[in-house]
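Posting this for the archive.
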Amino acid sequence: MKVLTMASVLAAGSMTSLAMADSMNADASQAETYVKDSVITTKVKAKLAAKHLSTLTNIQVDTDRQGIVWLSGKAPTQDASDLAEMIAKATEGVNSVHNGIFVGS
């Protein structure tokens, strides 16, 4: 009886350890993805700022885990919106760009 109880406790402990390890791996993977997304977003924002066009500073940049960049905000002209999209597309790590920039004053 004691052997059966001990085996049950050991099996339950092993399963708990495996579940915790999977959870820790998932957390590490999410953190790695978040860092990658943040790096891409930062690179795009830095390139936009480097153009020294005040119109590009009104554009928000978000990146999802697949490397898709989402541009939003406001630009005074279609050319400024197109430039922001071109800059984002030319950034390392970007797989595609969704341009949601509103054009107008």
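The radius of gyration is 23 Å. Confidence is low (pLDDT under 50) at residues 6-21.
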